[in-house]
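We were asked to recover a plausible sequence for a given structure. The inputs and outputs are reproduced exactly as logged, with field labels preserved.

PROBLEM: sequence recovery
POSITIONS: 367
GIVEN STRUCTURE:
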């Protein structure tokens, strides 16, 4: 008897250890679907290999992205990697991988596009005669300190470029690897040119390992906040995402632990399930939290008019309704009690220090 299954099927655990997604369904823009068929000679099982990570060069001519979303507090972003090996099952960036012809599932965490030349391209953009400085946030889509950064060091090269031009930069990460670059970040901080946010989803090690299989453990992230704070680097915490009936009860503890470690600002985002993430998250729930799946989805849909997700600006990240209002109140009260988000104009990052060095590497300086 011939047996077949498609790429939509769940890949067995032994072949996807350390991965967040369970499947690798083709992206929504693909006109063809791949299908594997067992010919009856066990060729399907014999030909199956563990899921591996592959790096591919991204030769984009620009590395600064722009957005005009009214609910995002910055316009410019920079992401040296497309795709993310952290494998966070809830990652809102997953659907962007389908624009490259990959799946939002396992491909997102194993088929990584790398901007090897990002620092050089960024310098070219800074040197353009019409360039005007504005805050650039690194890690606005995928993590700038995901595992491959330890070897490639592209993020570190980019930070050196920001320092070279005295350009303000913000960092968002859930990796303790950010501590590696404290030397550069501390120098930028002394000039009021940097701010770092560390994302903490849960304090439960086991849950974190299931949701974010290759991200730093929660305690390591708190240690990174402590290290950054001790070095004089402005650091905040993002309780993101808040997942109804799974991590929501930890909100106050996450804020308190981060504050104790040195965080002075905070933010939160509710779980978002746009496009392909709906199916991927359901697959994850069925395996990791089957007893809570129905309640989690019920609460989530209650914040989005009965749907898994609503893309409306102002609501997509926070939701609406009684449950969303309760989370917002808890967040505000915790921040007030802890003294978080007590910023003043003196905390604003500097834009007037930006300068273009005379020596661009092509000719010698006159002085």
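RECOVERED SEQUENCE:
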């Amino acid at each position: 008897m011939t047996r077949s299954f498609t790429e939509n099927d769940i890949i067995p655990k032994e072949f996807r250890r350390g991965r967040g997604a369970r499947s690798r369904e083709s992206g929504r823009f693909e006109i063809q679907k791949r299908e594997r068929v067992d010919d009856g000679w066990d060729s399907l099982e014999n030909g199956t290999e563990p899921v591996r990570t592959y790096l591919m060069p991204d030769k984009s001519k620009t590395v600064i992205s722009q957005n005009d979303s009214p609910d995002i507090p910055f316009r410019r972003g920079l992401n040296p990697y497309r795709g993310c090996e952290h494998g966070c099952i809830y990652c809102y960036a997953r659907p962007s991988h389908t624009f490259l012809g990959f799946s939002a599932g396992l491909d997102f965490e194993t088929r990584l596009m790398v901007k090897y030349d990002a620092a050089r391209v960024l310098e070219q953009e800074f040197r353009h005669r019409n360039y005007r400085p504005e805050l650039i946030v690194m890690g606005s889509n995928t993590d700038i300190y995901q595992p491959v950064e330890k070897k490639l060091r592209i993020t570190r090269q980019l930070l050196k470029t920001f320092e070279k031009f005295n350009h303000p930069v913000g960092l968002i990460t859930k990796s303790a690897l950010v501590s590696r670059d404290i030397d550069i970040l501390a120098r930028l901080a002394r000039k009021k040119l940097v701010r770092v946010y560390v994302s903490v989803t849960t304090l439960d090690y086991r849950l974190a390992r299931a949701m974010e299989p290759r991200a730093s453990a929660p305690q390591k992230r708190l240690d990174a906040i402590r290290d950054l704070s001790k070095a004089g680097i402005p650091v905040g915490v993002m309780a993101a995402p808040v997942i109804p009936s799974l991590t929501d009860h930890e909100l106050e503890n996450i804020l308190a632990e981060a504050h104790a470690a040195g965080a002075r600002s905070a933010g939160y985002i509710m779980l978002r399930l746009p496009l392909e993430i709906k199916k991927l998250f359901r697959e994850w729930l069925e395996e990791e939290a089957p007893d809570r799946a129905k309640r989690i989805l019920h609460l989530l849909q209650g914040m989005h008019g009965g749907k898994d997700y609503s893309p409306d600006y102002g609501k997509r990240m926070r939701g609406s309704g009684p449950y969303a209002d309760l989370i917002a109140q808890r967040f505000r009260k915790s921040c007030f009690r802890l003294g978080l988000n007590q910023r003043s104009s003196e905390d604003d990052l500097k834009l007037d220090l930006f300068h273009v060095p005379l020596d661009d590497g092509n000719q010698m300086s006159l002085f």
